Amino acid sequence: MIRRKKEHWFRMLFIWNGSVLPRLLPRLILLFILSLVIVYLHGTIFSFKVPLNPAPFTLFGFVLALFLGFRNNASYERFWEGRKLWGALLNITRSLTRQALTLVNSTAEEGSTLGFVQLLSAFNYALKHHLRGTDALPDLEKRLNEKQFKLVANTQFKYIIITKLLAEWVQKARMENRIDSIQQARFDENIDKLEEVAGGCERIVSTPIPYSYSVLLHRTIYIYCFLLPFGLVDSLGWFTPFIVSFIAYTFVAFEAIADEIEEPFGMETNDLALDNMCEMIDRTIFELINITIAASKESDQQQIIH
To answer: Structure pTM?
Structure first.
């Protein structure tokens, strides 16, 4: 995800990185060339004049814009729901860390709370990699002990196994009388919320916008754009390629942005910044136990500074 400060309005006209224009440029150039050919031939194909005028394109363009608006709203709703789920994840991990620090008896064995916090950190990274379909093992190996890592390594839903390890930590504290049954219930409530966040993210990933709807909208946009030069050639002349390319850029860019944010957990420039979110969660929960997390500028690897 591209995260940048607000630019001056004039500089924003020329921003390249983070824009969908680089992906669309070949298509727009093709449409521009097609429009030039149509203008040169005066809107004829094999001596047949295509009888189109701007009126139907105006009406149809309005309807198409409404459908594009609905498509973008549906995609942005998925994007925003994903952001809210990860915002909730930040709050839950903070609460669990605070509970481990304040509710558990201070006679706990040394390093016990650190192990609990490392499990929370491992949960976040395991969930991120599962949503992206990437390898979680390098990140988990840094955060889990050898026994925990072996237990999690060969499983599909690694983050769910980690919630089991969190619950076992709480159960052990209860068996050692370091917390009472009411405090254990409080821990369990927040661990249940971790699973609810994971389930919400899985729902977004496993339930895409219906493919037939996307195909219909995609076909309609391109048919509209390729027919548009025939409707404008008589009234605009050699200005037709420029006007058609601009209109096509608007429609096709909206569709491209909707495609990107429909799957908010990916690694496209407009997807959620899950790497930064995991790093921020690490910083806040480790800071609660007086450990500072320093992010490397050269990579996403992190160094723990006591």
So the answer is: 0.85
